[in-house]
Amino acid sequence: MGHHSLPDDSAPAGTGARPRRRRRTVAVATAVVLAVAAGSAVALRTDLLPFGGACGGSSVEVDVVASPDIAPALQTVAKKARDDATRTDGKCLDVRVRARPADEVADSLAQRPANPEFQVWIPDSSLWAAQVADEGGSSLTAAGTIASSPIALGTVPSAAKALGWPDTTYTWTALTRAATSGSGLHLGVADPTRSATGLLALARTDAANRKEAKDGGRAAGRTTATAKLLYERVADGDGRLLATLPHDASGAEQRNPRRNQALLLSEQAAYAHNTTAGGPALDLLYPEDGAAELDYPYTLVNDQELTADQSRAANRFLTLLDDTDGQNTLRGHGFRSSSGSADPKLVGAAGGRAPQPYATATTNPPSAGELKALLGMWTTTVQSTRVTTAVDVPVSTALPDPGQGGRSRPALTKDSRPQALDTFTPGDEVRRWKFAACLDGTKDYVELPPTGRLGEGGENSGTHRDALATAFRSPTPVPRATGPYATALAAYRQARAT
Fold it and tell me: Fewer CB within 10 Å of terminal CB in the chain, N or C?
């Protein structure tokens, strides 16, 4: 693990001398500055951190907020420290770990003043801390990384067999293309605005598209198309993604259109799923051109405001996570070490198997500009749209049109309106109006049901999309003149108001 080093540091006792690779810096817009100088409250000197002995008297409490996937492992290490009467500077070490989604913490710390009630934050990716720094939020100091987990494609056994697992390997572009080919395989992903796994997977797909297409416009088009497909099966966050898998191996669950047969997820998430009861086990396909990686940075929050006792206690806990027992605990929860080296036993439990390239080195993280562009593209591509459609229904529309072979206007548009609905996502809201002169007293328009998002439930077990498609096919003319101008103005005013 790459610790922040002070001029008078010595290596933490008990960590051994295992080889470590130099950690890559992840930045979303501004790098997290490792600004702890000699004499700072952050100290890792082992002579300041006495070990063992029965605790008596005062204790030092450290509050830690961690990503929900790694929090259980940290709680285990913290409990062992209390049970073993572990000390820091002669005082009992009392670490309290709470699980909280990284995106929520990042949003909170980005506000000024944040006044967090915790001293250490361990998100699943450095990109969250960098996001806080970019937005001018709370001061964050990265003291090292404690674990890692590559991102791969997890599939239920039937889907894995269809994709040629384990013998067939794929690049990122081939992997996402195969999993979104429309062959009945549904691919799920966590919302990239809320999930580092989702965002990093999208970034790797985009990087592979740019390398393969060698044309910026074409690559962007491919990434946008992939984003649209992913959005159709997007989950609100990492915690809900695994719930979209079939709940059992029954035919009914496997054929359920609401279930996903493949997920973009971390190796650790697959490990946790496979080692707990419920649902078919996942098989993992690792991209041969390098996986993205979650890196779990150990981050001090507003370290200049910490007392000397708090700083020493926070770093004492860091040494516990880095020693042999701590690393074994993390491995037992499905995490790789911070070096990223693959443990065959862990990989096997997570669903990996040779010749899948699970030991291939992870790729360099995306740049700040790349991540911002991707988030902008995602938001623009998948953000919900609110549209008002106005159908003219005066009796004149039912008259034959000589220029169209004698067909009336309703007949000409009978199929085109439902087809237009296909261009909208389930999250889009489409309102339906009909208009004619003085159709509703002094108003020239009437708003018709249903109103709501297209994917929401409607009448007769259908959706709003189904109800609108039916209504669009059968407009009923009324004996009045047209009234488009007042209708257009009213629609404009409503759009501005909402």
Answer: C
* Angstrom distances, CA of residue 483 to CA of 400, 414, 487: 20, 21, 7
Query: Is 126 domain-assigned?
Result: yes
Query: Does some domain include residue 300?
Result: yes
> Rounded distance, CA 152 to CA 174, Å?
13
Single pTM value for the model:
0.69
Do you know the residue count of the chain? 498
Q: What is the C-alpha separation between 86 and 63, in angstroms, rounded?
A: 16
| Structural domain containing residue 1 | 1-146+295-339
Straight-line distance from the first to the last Cα atom of the chain, in angstroms, rounded to the nearest whole number = 51
Identify which of 107-116, 148-157, 412-421 has the greatest average pLDDT.
Answer: 148-157
Tell me if 71 is assigned to some domain: yes
* Paired tokens of 220: 């962007």
Over residues 41-59, mean pLDDT: 50
Average pLDDT, the chain: 78
Lowest mean pLDDT among 255-269, 312-326, 360-374, 429-443: 429-443
Cβ distance 262 to 94 under 8 Å?
no
CA distance 386 to 70: 39
Most confident of 132-141, 213-222, 305-314, 463-472: 305-314
With contact defined as beta carbons under 8 Å apart, do 319 and 15 qualify? yes
CATH code (residue 439) = 3.40.50.410
- Asked whether residue 217 carries a pLDDT value surpassing 70, the answer given is yes
Q: Locate 453 and state its tokens.
A: 């998002």
Would you say residue 344 lies in a domain? no
159 shares a domain with 92: no
Q: What is the side-by-side order of every strand in the sheet holding 386-392? A: 386-392, 429-440, 443-448
In contact, 322 and 73? CB cutoff 8 Å: no
Are 453 and 390 part of one and the same domain? Answer: yes
> Tokens in use for 70?
């790694």
**CA distance readout (Å), 160 to 178, 179, 187, 291, 311:** 11, 10, 12, 18, 48
- Residue 448: closest CA among 408, 478, 411, 407: 478
